[in-house]
Amino acid sequence: MTAYIVRRLFIALVVVLGISLLTFAMLHIIGGSPGTIVLGTKANKATVAAWNKEHGFDNPFFVQYGSYLWQLLHGNLGQSYKLNQSVDSLFIAFAPRSALLSGSSLVIALLIAIPMGIFQALKRNSLADNVLAGGAFVGYAMPVFLTGLLLIQFFALGQPFSWFPAVDNTTETGMAYVLSHPNQLVLPVAALTVTTVALFSRYMRSSALDVLAQDYIKVARAKGLSDRLVMVRHLLRNACLPIITLIGLLIPALLAGNLIVESLFNFPGLGYMFYQALGNEDYQILLAYTLFGALLTVIGNLIADVALTVADPRIRLA
Prior knowledge:
By secondary structure, this protein is mostly helical. It contains 14 helices and 2 strands; from the N terminus they run ααααββαααααααααα. It has 2 domains: about 1-85, no CATH class; about 90-310, MetI-like (MetI-like fold).
């Protein structure tokens, strides 16, 4: 187990370095002169050249990249010259809100999707199964921004269901404010949850059907165990194994979903910060956000693999 984790961490490091190099190169090629972006197009060439030289942007590409890696090794994600703040401080301010948004939607989706998938498997091809399956297909096919717009229309702007705010108009980024105004979380969390429930429930139904066809389920029923005991002791644990893998793969996908949902609801989080950075051409934030997504991807996969061995002793990491 230890050797496997060490090897996976080494591979993860190589993957993150490769993504950092690719992203750094793309921003270097596509983007204009950093001095022009920060100082504006009306700044004279001498001022722009002096600014680039002061901040090391006149150096060759690999010198700039090496300097950036050296900053990362010291825990420095760079400086947002547009906002005149370090990217580290911005991540510290916005990351907790994004984590709360993603974590809440993930937990709620699991609490809904797991019982829903098992119920569909037990009631296979019934009217209830077909209705829930149709709803899941609609929810999965619907883009998250459309789900968010519909929620705003029906529960924020509609009558008589104007229960929740359509957007977060505050500039507060602290967790204390968010926790003291939970009504502002309802619609963003719901928008992320709908698609996640649709995805999880389909996987859960398919996995539960596979488990129900296994011989040990038939033996348990033949021994006289009640359906409740069969479901709790044999069905639930084994059917949830694919969901564990899916959770690990979904962690970076939630980050992408946050980008759309936070922008739609004006919710100050990492996704909203990235959206603003795109408009401002704030490449330090864009690069840090991309690296963060890559890190979540490799960590999510590793956590899923290790969690599978804990949930199912038959699986051995080698």
